[in-house]
């Protein structure tokens, strides 16, 4: 089992028919249970008393014997049970935490390359130590992948004593870490890092290896006299455990990862300003149409003729129909489909992209094909140089190259088919350790956004006065600010957690369970951070979560609801929506107007049906976009596309 050399799996292309045929045995086990899990838990529990009675030298001797067994026999049932029992005992001694039986089941799923769906608060971080430590003891380098640097550092520090007591080394890779330290971190038995750092380190290594990813290329450099790993930082893709797997493997999969060079800023500023001036002379519906359901702009025949007239007057590149029309489409997209507060923020004269699924700022990210420069020009910011791609890949292609891949998340069943078709990740549901006591109150749907925000403010005031802790989820920074202004006007103290306060995110979300506290959070900002609930709040039915909008993906709504009712605690969830919410832009305006005209209860019931339809439509559009991106990326090359100018 020991892996001394650089390793990657040859990429398997997604075949929907083959995926459907091979999925049914896995689906049966996931639905009706796997007897192997029951046997594993029984074996681990049988060893608990024996390990608990060992002194430290005896425990260390047992760990060394297990290391030899794992490297000789691999992940046989007896060795895995022994490893899990030792990890549980060491965790109890070093961290004061004992793995529950359900966490043992989760660890088994991870070790066997599955996606474990565990409810929020069920201890996914501790669960991952079972699979990570077992694999590392067997000699397999492990990457534990999280959604941001904060979580990577936090989890590595918190779980570090457990690994070190097992004789394992732990490294952390975060943004800004120099190459020598990165190489040292990846050389550890277990490396904690974010999906972004993994992706770009992988791309840079591919460039260093001359786009020859195989172990042969790595050996060739050594034969030629290069030091082992010279020019690279990673040592292959052996085993990845992906936390928040739906976010990393599905939501983030809509964006390709690109290493690029930069064009002159003054040249881009002239181009962007000219493009915006050009489209400013076009008329909506006559010269172009905005297709909001598809998030794109279509220039009509009349518009193309008008652009030709204007382009010929300007001259230069604007005489080219291809460059002219593509520039116009991008400019119209920047003007009409990208909005400040929803898709980006402006900070320190810079346009900062906001992740629509988490509300976090995506530092150092930029939109491609001139879109970023057009948004900068629109906002009056200093226009930066355009990033011209040199290397490109998608998350789908990176993670499919791991020899063993596993994931864990609170919301996987909605995308279980996609996870299997793309990554061959079977979703298995892990039960909660304690019965759930979360209550879902009836959703209210109001006619206007103004009525909705007022109702939310009144409900928050009522709950806070009664001692509840209130967490209000929004879809955008702009929505958070609107609600914050309303709460301030009502004299209600509150905290706002959005992309603008990313550095204080953990501190704010961790206090959201305090008595009478009101917290406004952008989407799933604070995801991965536990919310301890005060005893006095638990006496008043616990944390109360208000969903102010439906998200494009129903998984995100379920994640937000999962912030309450953790560990068997009480909690309440309620949706307060309006027929002016952005999601309903995907539904024909006539349907929305007809729905708003219905009386009372009937309007509420029909409105919920309309919201569900809009959500399913958005999910289909995003799924199609991910499939199209993967196919496009595969066409660019067998492994990676390297080019000096893909523009």
Characterization of the model:
There is one protein chain. It contains 24 helices and 21 strands. With 647 residues, the chain is an alpha/beta fold. The chain has a 7-stranded parallel beta sheet with strand order 3-4-2-5-12-1-13, with helices on both faces. Strands 14, 15, 16, 17, 18, 19 and 20 form a 7-stranded parallel beta sheet that branches. The protein is globular, with a radius of gyration of 26 Å.
Which regions have little confidence, pLDDT < 50, spanning 5+ residues? 222-229, 638-647
Q: Into which percent range does the helicity of residues fall?
A: 40-55%
Task: Output the number of helix runs.
Answer: 24
| Rg (C-alpha, Å) | 26 Å
Strands of the widest sheet, in order across it, are: 3-4-2-5-12-1-13
How many separate domains make up the residues?
A: 3
Distance between the termini: 44 Å
CATH topology of the largest domain: Rossmann fold
Q: Tell me what portion of residues adopts beta-strand conformation.
A: 15-25%
CATH superfamily annotation of the largest domain: P-loop containing nucleotide triphosphate hydrolases
Assign an overall shape. globular
Mean pLDDT: 86
The quaternary organization reads as: single chain
Second rung of CATH, namely the architecture of the largest domain? 3-Layer(aba) Sandwich
The tally of beta strands, per DSSP, is: 21
The major β-sheet equals: 7 strands, parallel
Query: Helix/strand-derived class?
Result: alpha/beta
What is the CATH C-level name of the largest domain?
Alpha Beta
């Amino acid at each position: 089992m020991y892996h001394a050399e650089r390793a990657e799996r040859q990429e398997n292309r997604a075949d929907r028919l083959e995926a459907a045929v091979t999925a049914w045995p896995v689906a049966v086990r996931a639905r009706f249970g796997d007897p192997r899990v029951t046997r594993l838990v029984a074996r681990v529990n049988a060893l608990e008393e024996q390990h608990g009675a060992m002194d430290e030298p005896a425990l260390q001797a047992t760990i060394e014997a297990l290391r030899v067994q794992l490297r000789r026999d691999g992940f046989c049932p007896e060795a895995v049970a022994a490893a899990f029992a030792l990890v549980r005992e060491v965790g109890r001694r070093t961290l004061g935490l004992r793995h529950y039986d359900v966490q043992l089941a989760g660890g088994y799923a991870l070790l066997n390359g599955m996606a474990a769906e565990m409810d929020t608060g069920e201890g996914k971080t501790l669960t991952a130590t079972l699979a990570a430590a077992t694999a590392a003891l067997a000699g397999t380098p492990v990457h534990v992948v999280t959604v941001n640097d904060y979580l990577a550092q936090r989890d590595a520090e918190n779980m570090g004593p457990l690994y070190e007591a097992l004789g394992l080394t732990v490294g952390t890779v975060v943004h800004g870490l120099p190459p020598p330290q990165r190489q040292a971190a990846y050389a550890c038995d277990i490396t904690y890092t974010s999906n972004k750092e993994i992706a770009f380190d992988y791309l840079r290594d591919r460039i260093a290896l001359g786009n020859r990813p195989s172990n042969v290329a790595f050996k060739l450099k050594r034969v030629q006299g290069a030091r082992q790993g010279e020019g690279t930082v990673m040592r292959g893709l052996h085993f990845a455990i992906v936390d928040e797997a739906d976010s990393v493997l599905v939501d983030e999969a809509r964006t390709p990862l690109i290493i690029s060079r930069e064009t002159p800023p003054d040249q881009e500023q002239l181009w962007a300003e000219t493009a915006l001036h050009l489209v400013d002379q076009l008329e909506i519906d006559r010269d172009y149409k905005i297709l909001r359901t598809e998030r794109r702009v279509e220039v009509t025949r009349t518009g193309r003729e008008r652009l030709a007239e204007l382009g010929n007057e300007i001259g230069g590149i604007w005489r080219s129909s291809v460059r002219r029309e593509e520039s116009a489409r991008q400019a119209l997209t920047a003007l009409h489909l990208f909005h400040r507060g929803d898709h980006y923020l402006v900070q320190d004269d810079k346009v900062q992209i906001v992740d629509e699924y988490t509300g976090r700022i995506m530092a150092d990210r930029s939109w491609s094909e001139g879109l970023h420069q057009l948004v900068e020009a629109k906002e009056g910011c200093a226009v930066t140089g355009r990033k011209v791609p040199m290397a490109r890949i998608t998350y789908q292609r990176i993670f499919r190259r791991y020899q063993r891949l596993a994931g864990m998340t609170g919301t996987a069943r909605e995308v279980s088919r996609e996870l299997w078709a793309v990554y061959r990740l079977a979703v298995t549901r892990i039960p909660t350790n304690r019965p759930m006591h979360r209550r879902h109150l009836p959703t209210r749907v109001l006619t206007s956004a103004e009525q909705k925000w007022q109702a939310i403010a009144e409900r928050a005031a009522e709950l806070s006065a009664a001692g509840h802790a209130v967490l209000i989820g929004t879809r955008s920074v702009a929505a958070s600010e609107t609600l914050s202004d309303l709460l301030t006007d009502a004299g209600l103290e509150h905290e706002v957690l959005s992309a603008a306060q990313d550095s204080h995110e953990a501190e704010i979300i961790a206090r959201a369970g305090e008595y009478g506290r009101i917290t406004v959070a952008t989407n799933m900002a604070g995801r991965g951070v536990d919310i301890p609930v005060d005893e006095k709040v638990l006496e008043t039915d616990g944390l109360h979560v208000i969903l102010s909008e439906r998200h494009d993906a129903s998984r995100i709504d379920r994640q937000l609801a999962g912030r309450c009712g953790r560990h068997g605690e009480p909690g309440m969830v309620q949706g307060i929506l309006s027929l002016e919410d952005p999601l309903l832009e995907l539904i024909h305006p006539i349907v929305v107007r007809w729905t708003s005209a219905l009386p009372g209860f009937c309007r509420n019931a029909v409105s919920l049906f309309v919201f569900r339809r809009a959500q399913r439509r958005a999910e289909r559009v995003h799924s199609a976009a991910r499939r199209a991106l993967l196919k496009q990326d595969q066409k660019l090359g067998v492994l990676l596309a390297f080019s000096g100018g893909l523009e």
